[in-house]
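Minutes, structural biology subgroup

Action item carried over from last meeting: produce the structure token record for Putative NADH-flavin reductase (Phaeobacter italicus). EB confirmed the sequence was re-checked against the source entry. Recorded below for completeness.
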Amino acid sequence: MQVMHRKGIRVPKAIVLGGYGLIGLACMRALSRAGFEVSGVGRSMRSANAVDLSVEWIIRDIPTITVEEWSAILDGVDVIVNASGALQDGARDDLEAIHVTAVARLVEAAARLPVRIVQISAAGVSESASTAFFRTKARGDMILSSGAKNWIILRPTLVLSQEAYGGTALLRAASALPLIQPHVLASAQIQTVYVGDVAAAVVASAQGQIRSGTIADITEQDTHTFPDLLAKVRRWQGWSGPVASPTIPAALVSAVGKIADLLGHLGWRSPLRTTALKALADGIRGDPGAWAKAGGSSCRSLDDTLALLPATRQERLFSRAYVALPLAIGTLAIFWLLSGLITLIDPARAMSVLAERAVSSWVIAPTVLGGAVADILLGIGILWRPWSRHAALGMLGLSSAYLIGSLFAAPDLWADPLGPMVKVLPGMTLAALVWLMLEER
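Output recorded by EB:
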């Protein structure tokens, strides 16, 4: 990479891994404002373009980058910020690969170069932790601290941001439930940190204000129980107080986590997976003392963070849509799967609908059986995250074909008292909403 100069002054260069993520994006913006020439690394050009930053993007799956490739990428770079990570193993994520292998390769490449590595880890990491997330993060931190020449490890607690993703989206959604406020994880102790304070810590580290070898939690001073945190977020969003606060049994919470884990193997990164629930139950706490001792600025309290992020109508709409989206996807999946399976259970009955209306016999069987198979495939497809938007679009297309075909083959069905054709329209609307609402970040 070429080094830029402004009026003879060398412009420092920074690369952010996971640059379009919640923390990575905040770091990229803060580093740009601080005068760095910033590049981002991520595996989706679509997600990179969506953040609308005028920076160079390196589109790669980070765990696949070799030591030799890292050496070329890091040429002329002053700082690399590792904000990449995954919560739990799944169809698209491998914790060992992203938290350990990728860090080891990066450290090996950086050992021959004058580059500072700023690692975004997590408060509470330990090789004996209760989740693979914390254990693999801890191993990555150990590889960095023992092998790199110039490094800093920052460990934020629960990060709050104007962006909504993962844990921040879960907080918003749980707080926005109509009429009720679930009483769950009552003993969990949580500390928060504003994403801007994390980004400021990264900038201070990148500028050399923090000495190499620093390991510090980035967090507010205060601690909150999880129910109190939900209540504060609910008030911040502007909702009225709940009518009821039912206690959610631990067994039900565990069951929800296991279901979310299964969905993780279908590509869905639910914040309700067992790793997230276990982390919350264990508590998310940190000690701001090491950061203060290193010369870092203190972090905002929860109240100050929420005051900095005024809740808007868009905020409230998102929070309730976040709850409604999985319900819509589940409803569509069940509807289309049952539609196809019921037809295959008794295909003769379905064929008789067309036969009674003098449709050519050679058309009937392929139409009925092909339609049933297509229904099942679409019902399965919308549950597989990489295909979900395409499946929703396919539902719209196939529903349109059914409606148009009925106008020619069975127009009388439109006047049927049970409204079999009219009822297709709400399903199309639901599929359209899912197609519009599904996005990565």
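Discussion: Residues 326-437 form one domain.
Next step: EB to file the record with the rest of the batch.
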